[in-house]
């Protein structure tokens, strides 16, 4: 099938079946397109919609996002995962704000901004600026890998370059915004990872993977390896005023910039830390171990709730550590398992 016929089939399908009522498709702008594309990285549309709507209500333009405290941005992002995306959003907003608030409309300039790779930049240029640029997000990779039966994990340079070449060949000059959205929609709604609806696909008659019965093995998954397991102990320290001690995590690393419990390797380490800090342990309750899975490792954690009678002021801040009343904690940017802890904990705080 020629690129021209491929484009015609994809666009005809999009005109009849494509998604056109997503919140970021209304009042299209570089800012809204960029925000949605970053949120949609490794995250499904149904999950992103409420987050996007909250962000737009709080930060209707890039200037307001740039002027917001990072804590506020992280609090709105909490639960969406991959928190480097939120930190890069804030950094990029500040860069754009300092340059007058206008997004660059050139690929190289966009890719210089934190958190914007080639595919995200291509989506911004095609959707918001109507400039013809290819994209290669997860959905488009899957469609093209199956259509051409391109084997090999797309993380390998040779495979990735081949997919980029194919994507470039098919991206039209005219109606590039609709084509970009159409390809993402096709992968998200029909050419799905499992149970693809090949019978409804507009290019099924020329799909090599379908013809050769390779749909279930393409695209080639990332080589599997045993996920390492890290074990930690969280100290849930509560004083006699009913306040909980939280620490702000470093900007880099997991849960960067979010508020969490002090973290230790063992209960003995907690005892030693309390002794060094003149904190008396009145009681200690060990809760059941839980697991939180990241993209590259499992985190098994045990929370130990320790009560102390040491007199503490209402809010004491030392080295990014703060004592918070329980009712204040919901307004903070918290990692998903810490949010879940306060929601499901058997302890009545």
| Helix fraction by DSSP (H/I, runs of at least 4) | 40-55%
Structural class: alpha+beta
Averaged pLDDT: 93
Shape: elongated
Count the domains: 2
> How many distinct beta strands?
9
Radius of gyration, rounded?
Answer: 24 Å
N-to-C terminal Cα separation, in Å?
64 Å
CATH class of the largest domain: Mainly Alpha
Describe it.
With 349 residues, the chain is of the alpha+beta class. The protein has 2 domains: 3-217, Hypothetical protein, domain 2 (Endonuclease III, domain 1, Orthogonal Bundle), CATH 1.10.340; 229-344, Nucleoside Triphosphate Pyrophosphohydrolase, CATH 3.90.79. The protein contains 15 helices and 9 strands. The protein has helices at residues 3-17, 30-39, 45-58, 62-67, 70-77, 84-98, 107-111, 118-128, 138-147, 157-170, 176-189, 208-211, 267-276, 326-329, 336-344; strands spanning 229-238, 243-248, 259-260, 263-264, 283-286, 290-293, 298-307, 317-318, 321-325. The strands form 2 sheets. Strands 1, 4, 5, 6 and 7 form a 5-stranded mixed beta sheet that branches. Strands 3-2-9-8 form a 4-stranded antiparallel beta sheet. Strand 8 and strand 9 form a beta hairpin. The longest helix has 15 residues, at 3-17. The protein is elongated. The model is unreliable at 313-318 (pLDDT under 50).
Concise synopsis of the structure shown:
The chain is of the alpha+beta class and 349 residues long. Helix content is 43%, strand content 13%.
